[in-house]
Design goal:
single chain, mainly alpha, 58% helix
Length: 182
């Protein structure tokens, strides 16, 4: 045998031994993963995307599958057609109705659901609650106080907070206003 033949034989033997070692390592890894999965031991995640599940969603039991979504119906009273996003979430028959009319139908449906299903007050009754003038003034003052606080930094901000705690929010707003001008 020549020297070239010996080198080729050595290379082939090295390659086959490396290939056998790689196949054995892969099979051992698969067996360990299968045993760990069978006994409920979580697998360690490696880099990259996790492999897809072997069981497809179609063959999964019904208890595992996600519940089917209800299709949204057209808001027009008495219409049983499915609403379509291309028509502004109404059916094909009612796509030309005015948006204000559709909005009115949706509000009526919400009110009916709220009063019958939960016994809660309808949405229109919640909006009807009026704020007293005293509450309106307090909210406006609080908004001004927070707005001025955002514009101040450091020691000025701490001073304004201290005044608010000691003397009240109105005095703190006056102080913050004067500090902002300076």
């Amino acid at each position: 045998m020549s020297n070239v033949d010996l080198n080729i034989t050595a290379l082939v033997e090295t390659f086959t031994s490396q290939l056998v070692a790689a196949v054995e390592a892969a099979s051992v890894q698969r067996i360990q993963a299968a045993l760990a999965g069978a006994f409920g031991v979580p697998q360690k995640r490696g880099p990259g995307r996790p492999p897809k599940k072997l069981v497809s969603a179609a063959s999964a039991p019904a208890s595992v599958r996600a519940p089917a979504r209800k299709k949204q119906l057209c808001p027009v009273p008495g219409c049983k057609n499915a609403a379509a996003p291309v028509f502004g979430m109404v059916c094909k028959e009612h796509k030309n109705l005015a948006k204000a009319t559709i909005k009115k139908y949706r509000e009526q449906r919400r009110e009916a659901k709220g009063t019958h299903a939960t016994g809660a007050r309808p949405a229109a009754a919640k909006k009807a609650a009026k704020l007293t003038p005293k509450v309106k003034r307090a909210r406006k003052l609080q908004g001004q106080y927070l707005g001025f606080l955002r514009s101040l930094t450091g020691a000025d901000r701490a001073r304004v907070k201290q005044i608010a705690a000691e003397k009240g929010v109105a005095d703190a707003v006056k102080l913050a206003q004067s500090l902002k001008k300076a």
